[in-house]
Design goal:
The chain has 1042 residues and is mainly β. It is built from one helix and 87 strands. Strand 14 and strand 15 form a beta hairpin.
Length: 1042
């Protein structure tokens, strides 16, 4: 009897504790002061209560929440991934960062019983997965590839495996789990061909349509066990994987159309209606099909982000949905309907996939549940984000949470608890400010009765749900955070966010000139940037997200003006990106690109906004015009219409002699190209296709005509040029494309994953001719230019063997490495004249081409490794300093080599655009660290801000010297003569400066004040022979003493 009383008292205590409101324990945030997003994407614990977090970061980030500092730095503003381990009280144990030239992501993490850590994600190019001084590289082949890696409890490298594509376009690893035997389960989606066996053997899976679902199993040593794929002709996704005590495997995600979820010769299909459905599926430990279930919906707005299985084999899912969804996969019906916008849901099923219950969490705006977990008693914990007011009690009662401002601009993190039957226990939000966009991305439980969440944090949020205040402050961009709360009342145990100490990426994309030789640049920036290279400052700020800048400099590089288009805080969540810039003969400036949400295109104090069709959830194209002083004239939008809209972007822009504007880009579904109240729509053949458009508008931006280049896959224009009567385009396409917007069709079929194209249209948009350049892999046309005779020069990059002659004849070029650069010449009828390649065993990308006044060909781009820029049997090698160096190269009108030079640092530097004017060459792009832009023996350094990427603009004098031809730099610099010397030399400077003379170990030998009028004569006796550095504020030179 006494035992019964004790049990009853324990039960009563548990009920009382479950009913309490959550209280704060701790929370911390980790991010940058300079820009770039840092996101925690997955969180797990080990048996000792240690916490493991993985995610992505940009810039330099301090991962230690204590006063101590433990920085990791990404490669000069690119996105890298991290793994970090914290103790039971939130103290840093270790953190590791991994990255390379491209974008790396790590959304999935798992921990085994011994505390070993497994991570999975995607990468491009080459990445070293060993954080020690040793090197263990994985090398991408095509598209985006996958990685799977293991580290011991101390963060030491154990192994890394690549899941590499032969013709892969995209691959995403989204879910990772370690089963009862220590085997690894991986799920995600991919397109193209992907080899799932990381050993010397090959196990290719081939997607038959768009993105398809995969599930794969590996041993604890990373050895392949099995892999399966499932998909329809539409895009299908698996977001999460789990396993039970018997080794059964469960996956969850979204699909559309008809999908056979049985990998055997048998068929077990699920079929959606006209929109996508969510699904859960079960397989045994050998990967054999057990069952698959879908939840039918009246709209395309639902998705499952997480699946969790408990010890009894019950399944828990969480996500969001729109409209009405039947969560009972049987013949029965259990509908949930949204309150407004998009609502969150969570649901529970038994091991046979039968519904136990489903619950909705919602308000009038956006609500999403991103992660779910259940404890040993069956209590359920959910995290995600919501806007405005959200009711977290799925019963007839109400338990509202309200964001800090309740104005729709604020997304708050929520943490909610429900009992074993899905009944409400408590819910709390982390109050953000009016422009926060905070989201809980992942949740887990530890062995000490705590619940932990991670995700992304913008600005300032209070992570203590009690009346006390415990603010975490993100740096510019977003920071990742970890928060730990107790299970009974949600008291905060600890919390922190990573602090990014350096950040902000600035990128020069285009450089153009006007008739007077003034130079214009365009690109993206974040933070505060001084666009005046002189001692005077001219700052622009983009505090919320990437902004667009346009600048004008005179022919000597002196600042004239700079303008910016930025996202205002009131429009948080909006995005704008510029793709191309054009200057007409009178100096008017034209800009095109894409945007989401609401953007003010007037850089003055006046306002002129455009809003995309579905606000922040929809990408539309824009084109805009400014006068030669940068004053706003007009801006126009091109966007999707109807119930199902895709993405639109302007890619290239030009104007004719009459001031008519020509824009080319891509679009999806049905798009209205008339920015007036009238409509002029074009439609693609399917939602999965990016079709190309060409559109013409008059000098005031009024619609004239639009043409669509439709097909089975993607068509992306990369460059445009015109003559008096015609429009010329280059870019790339996949699948089958009809390049004739009228009847009859003119079909081109890509030979590989991507083929380059060149096409010509008259001024009414009628096809004149179209040709393709392609082999069995990836080939892209990036730039195009005409000479006075109408001959066409185009450039880009290619892989493998490619025939550059569109006729029945064959003119093959063969790449030496992953990608080589090419230059090709065609006459005005599209007939082949010649094609040349250059490169090495690594990477060469040509971004831009122009002709000088002598018809010499000038190209710019970037490369990695050792590259031979002479297409003849002669060799003219350049060797990169870092992961990617900038280059400029010149060739005569027959494609014969004239000269080439490069500049760069240990990170990634890119020259995106080049132009010529009156014998001078201009280029722009981005760089990180210190780069010497002078190809001569002199030194002309640029130094970026910290470890971020900065814009560079460089001007060079032309040269007709052949061989390794000299190019004299004509920007402001330090000159020394004679050089070498015996300790007596003269320093000449084009601007006032203070400089120091340093020896090879950095000791200051002398300080000097320099001015423009008088050269400074240096006489230093008893100098040892060697190289000395003269370092000014923003420039330097080398002098040799012997």
């Amino acid at each position: 009897m006494r035992k019964l009383i004790l049990l009853g008292m324990l039960f009563l205590t548990t009920v009382l504790l479950d009913g309490q409101t959550p209280g704060f324990q701790w929370a911390n945030s980790i991010g940058s002061t300079g820009g770039g997003d840092d996101v925690g994407k997955c969180i797990k614990t080990d048996v000792s209560g240690n916490t493991f977090v993985c995610g992505s970061f940009i810039g330099t980030v301090d991962f230690d929440p204590s006063p101590a500092i433990f920085n990791l730095s990404s490669y000069y503003g690119s996105q890298d991934f991290f793994i970090a381990k914290y103790g039971p009280t939130g103290n840093l144990i270790w953190a590791k960062g991994f990255g390379g030239l491209g974008i790396e992501d790590c959304p999935a993490l798992a921990v085994d019983a011994a505390g070993n850590v497994y991570v999975a994600g995607s990468f491009v190019y080459t990445v070293d997965f060993d954080p020690s001084t040793n090197v263990s590289n994985l090398v991408q082949q095509y598209g985006t590839n996958l990685f799977l890696a293991k580290y011991d409890p101390s963060g030491n490298f154990v192994w890394a495996k690549g899941i590499i594509g032969n013709t892969t376009l995209n691959a995403f690893a989204e879910g990772l789990n370690v089963d009862m035997n220590g085997d690894i389960l991986l799920t995600g989606s991919f397109s193209g061909t992907l080899d799932f066996d990381p050993s010397a053997s090959t196990v290719n899976l081939i997607s038959t349509g768009n993105l398809e679902i995969f599930i794969a199993k590996y041993t604890s040593a990373g050895n392949y066990v099995w892999a399966h794929r499932f998909g329809s002709t539409f895009a299908d996704y698996a977001h999460s994987v789990s396993s039970d005590g018997a080794g059964n495997v469960y996956i969850a995600g979204q699909f559309k159309g008809t999908v056979d979820f049985d990998p055997s010769a048998s068929t077990n299909t699920l079929v959606t209606g006209s929109s996508s459905d969510i699904f859960i599926a079960k397989y045994d430990l050998n990967g054999n099909y057990v069952w698959a279930k879908n939840m039918s919906s009246s709209s395309a707005g639902e998705d499952i982000y997480c699946i969790f299985s408990d010890a009894s084999g019950n399944l828990y899912i969480a996500g969001d949905y729109g409209g009405t969804t039947d969560f009972d996969p049987s013949a029965g019906v259990y509908n949930l309907s949204i309150v407004g916008g998009v609502d969150a849901f969570f649901a529970k099923y038994n091991s046979s996939g039968n519904l136990i219950f489903a619950r909705s969490i919602g308000g009038m705006n956006f609500d999403a549940a991103y992660s779910i977990v259940a404890d040993a008693l069956g209590s359920i914990y959910v995290t995600g984000g919501f806007r405005l007011t959200c009711d977290f009690d799925p019963s007839s009662s109400t338990a509202n949470l309200i964001t800090a401002t309740n104005d729709g601009n604020d997304v708050d993190i929520f943490l909610a608890k429900y009992d074993v039957n899905g009944n409400y226990v408590w819910a709390k939000n982390m109050l953000g400010n009016s422009v926060s966009n905070d989201i809980g991305r992942a949740i887990t439980l530890d062995g000490n009765s705590g619940v932990l969440i991670t995700g992304q944090l913008y600005n300032t949020s209070d992570f203590d749900p009690s009346s006390a205040v415990n603010n975490l402050v993100a740096s510019s961009g977003s920071s990742f955070f970890v928060g730990k709360y107790d299970l009974s009342s949600c008291n905060l145990l600890y919390g922190f966010s990573a602090q990014e100490t350096v950040g902000g990426t600035d990128n020069g994309k285009r450089i153009k000139k006007d008739a007077a030789g003034n130079v214009y640049t365009m690109g993206n920036f974040i933070g505060t940037v001084d666009f005046d290279p002189s001692a005077v400052t001219a700052t622009l700020s983009s505090p919320v997200t990437d902004g667009i800048f346009i600048t004008k400099y005179d022919p000597s590089g002196n600042y004239i003006w700079a303008k910016c288009i930025v996202v205002e805080q009131i429009n948080f969540g909006s995005v704008c990106s510029a793709a191309d810039l054009y200057i007409d003969p009178t100096g008017n400036v034209y800009l095109t690109g894409s945007y989401n949400g609401t953007i003010d295109f007037d850089p003055s104090v006046a306002t002129s906004t455009l809003t995309s069709y579905l606000g922040v959830n929809d990408q539309d194209a824009f084109f805009a015009k400014y006068d030669n002083s940068g004053n706003y004239l007009w801006a126009k939008s091109i966007g999707g219409v109807g119930s199902l809209v895709g993405a639109e972007s302007g890619c290239v822009i030009n104007s004719d002699a009459a001031g008519n504007v020509l824009v080319a880009g891509y679009f999806q579904t049905t798009t209205d190209f008339d920015p007036s109240p009238a409509t002029a729509t074009l439609s693609t053949s399917g939602f999965s296709e990016f079709a190309m458009f060409i559109a013409k508008y008059d000098l005031n931006g009024n619609y004239v005509w639009s043409k669509g280049i439709i097909g089975s896959a993607n068509k992306i224009p990369k460059a445009i040029t015109i003559d008096n009567s015609n429009i010329y385009l280059t870019g790339y396409f996949t699948g089958v494309a009809d390049f004739d917007p009228a009847a009859p069709a003119y079909m081109l079929t890509a030979s590989g994953s991507e083929d380059a194209f060149i096409s010509k249209y008259d001024m009414n948009g009628n096809l004149v001719w179209a040709n393709k350049i392609g082999g069995s892999s990836q080939d892209v046309g990036n730039s195009i230019v005409l000479d006075a005779s109408g001959n066409i020069y185009t450039t880009g990059y290619f892989y493998g063997t490619v025939d550059f002659d569109p006729s029945a004849s064959i003119s093959n070029l063969v790449s030496a490495g992953t990608s080589d650069g090419y230059i090709a010449k065609y006459d005005n009828l599209g007939n082949y004249v010649w094609a040349k390649r250059f490169g090495g065993t690594n990477l060469e990308i040509v971004e831009s081409i122009d002709l000088d006044m002598n018809n010499k060909i000038i190209i710019s781009g970037y490369f990695y490794g050792t590259s031979d820029f002479d297409p003849s049997t002669n060799i003219s090698n350049l060797v990169s300093v870092g992961n990617a160096d900038c280059f400029l190269a010149a060739y005569d009108n027959s494609g014969s080599y004239s000269w080439a030079f490069s500049f760069g640092n240990v990170g990634s530097d890119r020259a995106y655009s080049v132009l010529t004017h009156n014998g001078s060459i201009y280029t722009t792009g981005y760089y990180g660290g210190t780069i010497d832009c002078d190809p001569s023996a002199s030194v002309n350094n640029l130094i970026s801000s910290g470890t971020t990427q900065d814009v560079f603009i460089a001007k060079y004098g032309s040269s007709t010297t052949t061989g390794h031809g000299k190019i004299s730099i004509v920007t402001s610099m330090l000159l020394t003569f004679p050089n070498p010397n015996a300790g007596n030399f003269t320093i000449q400077c084009e601007e006032e400066d203070h400089a120091v003379i340093l020896n090879q170990i950095g000791q200051v030998i002398q300080e000097v004040d320099l001015n423009v009028e008088n050269n400074y004569k240096v006489q230093i006796n008893n100098l040892r022979s060697g190289i000395y550095l003269i370092k000014g504020k923003n420039r330097s030179a080398k002098v040799i003493v012997n």
